[in-house]
Specification:
By secondary structure, the chain is α/β, with parallel strands linked by helices. The chain is built from 15 helices and 19 strands. The protein has a domain of 240 residues: FAD/NAD(P)-binding domain. Strands 4, 5, 12, 13, 14, 15, 16, 17 and 19 form a 9-stranded mixed sheet that branches. It has a 5-stranded parallel sheet with strand order 7-2-1-11-18. Helix 1 links the parallel strand 1 and strand 2. Bound molecules: flavin-adenine dinucleotide (FAD). The site of flavin-adenine dinucleotide has 37 residues, from helix 1, strand 2, strand 8, strand 17 and helix 8.
Length: 471
C-alpha cells in the first residue's frame, strides 16, 4: 500500500453518501472524503477481500483499459495508486511501444510514445481501488445494502438522504446526508424516483449499436514470448464488424475479448471461439489461442446502446443529489471511456463541492454536460459510421469521417500522427489536435512506404528449442 499523502482537504459538510461501489462510486467517495467529515459508500453486493467477480459488475470479466487521463485523476485522488497496481501484478506498458495495433490492415509503428498504460484485469483494478478507499479513516463501506429511494425535504426541493434495505427485502433504514451521489450504473433508478417526486422525466439520447463482447481468460502457452503486451486487431469501420483484443495481465494470464457489432455474434463454444479469431483480418491472436489453455468460461456481455441522460437540461432538479459515471452517461465500451469519464465526473464534483454546497447540483450538472460532449462525440461518431445505426449525424459528418479514415492511415506510418492520435484517445488533448495545419497537410499528401505495409509483430513464440525447454 502506498503511503503518499493525500492532497489537503477542505471541509464542506458533515456527511455524504455515495451509492454504487464500482469504479465511479469508488472515485467519487475518494474525492468526497476530502470535503466531508464522513462519507458512506453503499453497495448492493457483498465485497470480498479479493479481486473476485460480483453480480453488480458483470462487465468486469471483459478487457478494461483505463485511459491515461483517468489514471491521472485516480492518482490525484489516491496518491500512489499506480504503484499499488504494479505491486498487485499490473503490467506497465508504453501505449505504442508495447501495443501491437492493427487498423485497416496496417500495423502501427512501435515507437515509444511516453504515454503509459497499466494492463490488468478490471477485477484487480477495482479491488486495488477498493483497498485504497477502505484505508481512508472517514469512509464507511456499507456493502450488502441497496438504496431503495430518496429521503427529501417536505417541499421535495432537496434530497436529504436515502432509504436502504438488504437486497431482496428486510428492515428498511434511513440514512441522512447533505449530498447523495448516485453511482449505481446505467440501470440507475434516479429518473423514475425523480418523476415520482414530481420532477420532469430526464431526456435521454440512445444510439443503438448491439455490441456483443465474448471474453475468456487463458494461461499463456509454453514458450510464449511476444514482443507486445497488448494487441488489438481493430475493425475498419464500417466495412468490418468484428475485432479482438488480447492483453497480458497479472499472474501470467492472457485476457481475450472479441467483439461483434450489429448482429455479428462471436461464437460461445470452445472450438468456435478460437476459430472465430482465425476469421479476423490478422492471424496473430489465433496463433496464440491455438496453444493457450483456457482458464474459465467464455463470458458474454450484450451492450445494446450508448445512453446519455441529459440531467444538465432539466429545468428543475433537487439540491443535494449528483449522478456520476454510467448513471449519467454510458458509452459503447470499445472506446474504453467509461471509467475515465466517471473519474472526471468525480473530480468535477469535488471542484463544485469546494465552491460550497449551495447551488451545487446545478453547477455540477452543467459542468458534466460540457465534460461529456467530447467523449460522447468520439464514441458515437464511430458508431454512426454504420448506415443502419439511427441517430442525428453532426454537420459535415461525411467529410470528418473521410478525414478520420485518412488520418488513421497516416497514423500507420507517421509518428507525429500516431502520438497525437494516442494523446487524443487518452483524453490528454482535444480532438482539435488532429486538425493542425501540419497534420492536415500530411493527411492529404503522405502515403505509407513498402516497409510500412510489411510491418507486423514478431511471432509470439520463442524458437522451438526454447519452447520445448519451457514445456
Ligand atoms: C464489456 C464492457 C467493457 C468495458 N470496457 C471498458 C474499458 O475498456 N475502459 C473503460 O473505461 N470502461 C469500460 N467499460 C465501462 C465501465 O465498465 C463502466 O463505465 C465503469 O464500470 C463505471 O461504471 P459505474 O461505476 O458508473 O457503474 P457500474 O460499474 O455499473 O456499477 C454500478 C454499481 O452500483 C451497484 N448498485 C446498483 N444499484 C444499486 C443500489 N440501488 N444500491 C446500491 N448499489 C447499487 C452495483 O452493484 C454496481 O456495483 C466497459 C463496459 C463493458 C460493459
Amino acid at each position: 500500500m502506498s503511503t503518499a499523502t493525500p492532497l489537503p482537504s477542505t471541509s464542506a459538510g458533515r456527511h455524504a453518501i455515495v451509492y454504487g461501489g464500482s469504479t465511479a462510486g469508488l472515485s467519487a467517495a475518494g474525492v468526497l472524503s476530502r470535503h466531508f467529515e464522513r462519507v458512506t459508500l453503499v453497495e448492493r453486493d457483498r465485497f470480498e477481500n479479493a479481486p473476485h467477480p460480483r453480480k453488480g459488475a458483470p462487465q468486469a470479466s471483459h478487457v478494461h483499459g483505463l485511459l491515461t487521463r483517468g489514471m491521472n485523476v485516480l492518482c490525484e485522488v489516491f496518491p500512489g495508486f499506480q504503484e499499488d497496481l504494479k505491486a498487485a501484478g499490473s503490467i506497465f506498458m508504453d501505449m505504442t511501444g508495447d501495443f501491437a495495433w492493427c487498423m485497416g490492415g496496417l500495423w502501427r509503428p512501435r515507437i515509444q510514445s511516453g504515454i503509459y498504460f497499466y494492463s490488468q484485469s478490471r477485477l484487480l483494478l477495482e479491488w486495488v481501488l477498493r483497498q485504497r478507499l477502505h484505508a481512508l479513516p472517514n469512509v464507511r463501506v456499507l456493502d450488502g445494502r441497496e438504496v431503495t429511494g430518496f429521503l427529501t425535504s417536505a417541499d421535495k426541493a432537496r434530497v436529504t438522504g436515502v432509504q436502504l434495505q438488504a437486497p431482496g427485502g428486510g428492515q428498511e433504514e434511513s440514512l441522512e446526508a447533505e449530498l447523495v451521489v448516485d453511482a449505481s450504473g446505467r440501470g440507475s433508478r434516479t429518473p423514475q424516483w425523480l418523476e415520482a417526486l414530481g420532477y420532469p422525466r430526464v431526456e435521454e439520447t440512445h444510439i443503438h449499436v448491439d455490441v456483443v463482447y465474448a471474453s475468456r481468460l487463458f494461461r499463456a502457452p509454453p514458450g510464449f514470448s511476444a514482443d507486445w503486451k497488448m494487441m488489438n486487431i481493430a475493425p475498419e469501420f464500417p466495412r468490418e464488424r468484428q475485432g479482438a483484443v488480447i492483453q497480458q495481465i497479472e499472474n501470467g494470464h492472457l485476457l481475450v475479448s472479441i467483439a461483434g457489432w450489429l448482429g455479428t455474434q462471436p461464437p460461445l463454444d470452445d472450438a468456435g471461439y478460437v476459430e472465430f479469431t482465425r476469421s479476423l483480418s490478422q492471424p496473430h491472436i489465433h496463433e496464440v489461442l491455438e496453444h493457450a489453455e483456457p482458464l474459465g468460461p467464455i463470458n458474454v456481455f450484450r451492450f445494446s446502446h450508448n445512453q446519455r441522460r441529459h440531467y444538465e437540461r432539466m429545468p428543475r432538479f433537487p439540491e443535494g443529489l449528483a449522478p456520476v459515471g454510467d448513471a449519467f452517461c454510458s458509452f459503447n465500451p470499445i472506446y474504453g471511456q467509461g471509467m475515465t469519464t466517471g473519474a472526471l465526473q468525480a473530480q468535477a464534483l469535488g471542484g463544485c463541492v469546494r465552491q460550497g454546497l449551495g447551488g451545487l447540483s446545478q453547477r455540477y450538472r452543467q459542468q458534466v454536460g460540457q465534460l461529456l460532449a467530447v467523449p460522447w462525440s468520439m464514441a458515437t461518431s464511430g458508431d454512426l459510421r454504420f448506415p443502419e445505426v439511427e441517430g442525428k449525424r453532426p454537420p459535415a459528418f461525411g467529410l470528418t469521417s473521410w478525414y478520420g479514415d485518412r488520418f488513421q492511415q497516416l497514423a500507420s506510418h507517421d509518428e507525429e500522427a500516431l502520438r497525437t492520435f494516442v494523446r487524443v484517445m487518452h483524453m490528454l488533448e482535444s480532438p482539435a489536435a488532429l486538425f493542425s495545419p501540419r497534420l492536415i497537410l500530411k493527411t492529404l499528401t503522405s502515403r505509407p512506404t513498402a516497409a510500412d505495409l510489411e510491418r507486423k509483430p514478431e511471432p509470439p513464440f520463442a524458437p522451438a528449442a526454447a519452447r520445448e525447454q519451457a514445456a
